[in-house]
Specification:
It is a single chain. The protein is mostly beta strands and 585 residues long. The chain has 2 domains: 2-138, Immunoglobulins (Immunoglobulin-like, Sandwich); 212-523, Pectate Lyase C-like, CATH 2.160.20. Strands 8, 11, 14, 17, 22, 25, 26, 30, 34, 37, 40, 43 and 46 form a 13-stranded parallel sheet that branches. Strand 6 and strand 7 (132-138) form a beta hairpin. It starts with a helix and ends in a 62-residue tail after the last strand.
Amino acid sequence: MEKLKSSCLTIGLFLQLAAFSQPAVADTPLAVPTFHCIGLYWNPPNGSTENPCPVRYRPAGSDQWKTALPLWFDSRPPDTFKYLYPPSRRKNRPDDAFSLLNCSNQYRGSIVNLKPGTKYEIELILAESGRKTVLEAATWSEQFAVGRTVSLPKNSSRTLLADQSGLANAYTLYSPASDSALIDVAGKSDHCIEIRASHIIIRGLTIKNASSHAIRIFEGCHDVVIENCDISGWGRPDEIEAEKWGHDMQAAIYASESGTFNPTIARIVIQRCKIHHPRYDTNAWSEYRKKLDPEKKDTDWHPMGPQALTFYDTAGNHVIRYNEIWSDKDHYYNDIIGGGHNFCALGSPNRDSDIYSNSLQNCWDDAIEAEGANCNVRIWGNYISHSMVAVASAATHIGPLYIWRNVTAVSQKGPDTRAGGPFLKAGLGSGFAGGRTYVFHNTLLQPPTPVSQDPWQGHCIGLSTWGGALINHISRNNIWHVFNPKGHSIQERGDLCRDNDYDYDLCSARVIPAEIHQTHGIKAAPIYDPKNRTGQFALAPDTPGHDAGTIIPNFNDNFTGKAPDIGAFEAGKPPLAYGTEAYRN
């Protein structure tokens, strides 16, 4: 009976995804919610960049409308969205499994900073033609109704098979029978938990020593919540290099059946978990990997090793929030949150997904790898340190991608150098790129260095072309403080860069090309308020960037003073919070 129920749910989800991929009815916009955001899609007749689409919203029953950022009109032709994968990956892959042609000539965007469990009325207006439509959508509730509880023993050395599906209004809860439960497979099993069901909750477990992935989510699983868990010790050594380095991409939480194209894995929530200390290490860019370069001809070697989260080409609509992910100098991550595939129309986390209020530290490549479609993907309020790249977005093929109010500290390329990398690594590859990216109110720190500690530095570039061309990026109200004042806060390189707009940023170094950007930008290093508490980085009054930003509807509505402050922190407002106790109340 349980297997039949799970199969029916999987079929239903696939039909839902198939319907989602068809062209939208002209006057029927689509809304896709999460806890705090709603993604919007609309394909009306006669849409165009000259016919902008303002957005208003309000809680259902309220008299007061609020303004959101207008939807972006994607004017690219249908051929842009013809394929899911580049030619090298199309063989033996269901590249025509569903169509994304509806993305052409479509208005897309998100409403953010919403309240969970709330119904909203949303009004879309085409400014030039006067066409108007109103729809309702409800954000997810943070309370998951439990229909059945599977009580787990205090100690177990065997893999837990979570295969009992619940219902949307009656989740199956896997949790300790008493105060706590430990699953420690001592390296004798590939996984500590295998998830083969939907509408389930994994809660309150300590999970250790899987020889591959600590938790693996298989095909057909959706509406899964993993919360308040402590995960460590996963992974195996690389087959060629034995104990020195870990096997690439093995993860504390791994979502994939086959390593590619998993269109039935959707709505995975990972919250308030502590993920730390994989069993093996990742090489830095400056550390030699025989597997990559048997004859040692190069001087840089891409990191390979364990990750905290790895998602492959799923259906998206995931939420990763309030987690603490860290390690030590001998057990670094490759990426912390990432997966694949990068240059395609799916990728990780794919679409309608949120990554926020996490504390992320200790990786040699990308702290957050959001690459592929990035269709209404939102990344905000994270604290990131000891990574080379804070956010990688090569490519953002569909968009829009929103990156706002993140704070970064140390950036490092390897253990033997202070040199770091960029805050954002954008890029174009195999014809995949061109979706819009919004970058608002981020703060790049340059950490002071006590004599007794390693002389770390912050990022060397704010926006960069390290992954390829910068295309269709909008930058506002960011503190682009880089460690070399003669370096670059924003750097475009190559003729393929286009459609970018940077302004109202506080830049400590050069902007290239300078002649067409930052009309209202400020060239200065930030001065933070000496009254800030630990971990708070509001600008000091009457210093560069204070009350000097521009108003961005729905992103800085609660500013104080004459104008929004530049950077992640608004003076006089509660500081940002990250990790397992963030916004607990």
